[in-house]
Design goal:
Blueprint lengths: L8 E6 L4 E6 L5 H7 L2 H7 L21 E5 L5 E4 L3 E2 L7 E2 L8 E6 L6 E6 L5 E6 L9 E4 L4 E5 L2
Antiparallel strand pairs: 1-2, 3-4, 3-11, 5-6, 6-10, 7-8, 8-9, 9-10
Length: 155
């Protein structure tokens, strides 16, 4: 079990610099997360919940606006606006993360089926799931909970 004073370092890709950098892994107690996240953000990111589809709780960029979606818990860069597409599922969908370093995946067997869960590599926030039914060439659909993301303009 990790301690909350851990100095563990991981490598992530920083969109603004275009470079890989070493950062501290983020560990917080449940009480610390509850102080910085809304109830819905906490339920989704820390308790592995799912927001209702088509609720639109994620700030969307204006037409033509560039930027990056970051983890609501720690600010790690996750998905570029340019990789977002309309999947008609009710959740924000992306064809690829900014870097495989910034996310991690685990098998999720909840609800009686095996899915691939996507988590923030830095703070372990539950973000959503990835499916193999996206657009070519990768055919990936990173189906994310909007409340797990925050939009930052122009990187």
């Amino acid at each position: 079990m990790k301690t909350f004073a851990s100095q563990e370092k991981i490598k992530i890709f920083d969109v603004s610099t275009g470079r890989i950098q070493e950062v501290e892994k983020v560990y917080k107690t449940a009480a610390q997360w509850q102080r910085i996240l809304t109830l819905e953000q906490y339920n989704v990111t820390r308790l592995k919940g799912t927001e209702q589809p088509f609720t639109g709780r994620c700030v969307l960029p204006k037409k033509g606006e560039e930027g990056v979606y970051q983890c609501v818990g720690c600010g790690t860069d996750l998905f570029l606006v340019s990789t977002q597409y309309e999947s008609n599922t009710g959740w924000p969908s992306f064809c690829e993360p900014v870097s495989e370093l910034n996310i991690k995946t685990e098998i999720d067997t909840s609800y009686g089926s095996a899915r691939v869960e996507v988590l923030c590599a830095r703070c372990d926030a539950h973000l959503g799931h990835v499916f193999n039914d996206g657009p070519p060439p990768a055919k990936k659909r990173y189906c994310m909970n909007g409340v797990a993301l925050k939009f930052t303009k122009k990187y």
